[in-house]
Amino acid sequence: MATEILSVDFPIHVGYGCAHLNPPAFNAYRGSIVHALHDPGRGDDHAIEYIADGILMVAAGMVQEVGPAEELVKRLPSDGEVTDYSGMLIMPGFVDTHVHYPQVDVIASYGAQLLDWLQDYTFPAEARFGDEAVAREAAAFFLDELLRNGTTSALVFASVHPRSVDAVFEAARSRGMRLIAGKVLMDRNCPQDLRDTAESGYEDSKALIEKWHGAGRLCYAITPRFAATSTDRQLARAGRLAREHPDVFVQSHLAENTDEVAWVETLFPNHRSYLDVYDRYGLLRERSVYAHCIHLDERDRVRMGESGAAAAFCPTSNLFLGSGLFDLQAADTHGIRTGIGTDVGGGTTFSILRTLGEGYKVLQLQDQTLTPSRAFYLGTLGGARSLYMDDRIGNFEQGKEADFLVVDPNATPLMTRRMSKAKRIDEKLFALFMLGDDRNIRAVYLAGKKV
Ligand code: GUN
Ligand code: ZN
Description:
Bound molecules: guanine, zinc ion
Shape: globular
Strand content: 15-25%
CATH class of the largest domain: Alpha Beta
Largest sheet: 9 strands, parallel
CATH topology of the largest domain: TIM Barrel
């Protein structure tokens, strides 16, 4: 079949198996293409590539090429298809570097700061995940909600129950989604029915690593909830597991709330700081991701930067739980890898667009700024880099996995009106972060397949 430009009204889908007996050798998508080439820092005009009328070529689930339509259209092979998304932005899928799937029913619960919120809402909700049917239903809802919001990769907390990890991995596998997840470790300071032990937590995590880590697009994360809910013995076991599996991820919470920080100081009086607890147990390293990282001092930040661990900046959660303001400038100064986390259910949205909008406001309150390019980078390639996955996802470099979004900048009358005044791509992106959400996400592709 000859290459053809389809110009049908949105949505256009020429999928495998309908017009063809064999899948086409490639698929091409035409629209306004935008992706980050590297970190724009505080201002690098070349960090974001924008092609107003471009083509993204995908073959065997990978990005083959991206370029101006005028050029590419002439040399497209004859055995493929072009889908026309004119008027839409085509961008890489978002990366959520911190989110809890058993907290879908906790989102938007009134009136508490972190420690009360955990007791009153979160622990009771997570206790239900011992029931496999509950876990499966929530996992399916959760992943569909991520995808509906344009998030194609995520680092996810399950509950303390090993089966809850199976449920979310099975749901991710059936959707073809890139997911990192882990069983929560907690053996103290939580309800009895949510406790594991240092030994059972180690053994269960080890079995889950063997079962899931590196299975297709899935990876495992060793997941001590936070220092306050693990004994020394459990943290030591988690550190041992991290040493035994250097390519496995580690995820936890760090320095989120001042009462929490004070509590951790009393629980670990021999450690210099909250961060030092994780560090001394071997949990601070490349592929470790710590959510929040608000109440840190200079030495903590130096140590975090040199360790290669990443911070997950979770602005909607930090505002909702009244936790504090993440200092992005200080993180940058110390070379700390930073990604964006929705932190649902402490966070109030699954949308990375809205989360970036709130991130901008958190920095405004500190006389800092989040440029549109930087925000875009943090939601895509920067998130991938925090997870040491920027060789596979995050932008449209040749050979990367083709996880991408078709974004309608004109999803509502207000957005249409505002976009008509936005001439440059950075202006359009900024308006999208401030006004946009799931309504803008018109199509999502995972490894080249529309979901
Ligand atoms: N600290 C320990 N557990 C949690 C949690 O579930 N959410 C948040 N935001 N912080 C935590
Ligand atoms: Zn969290």
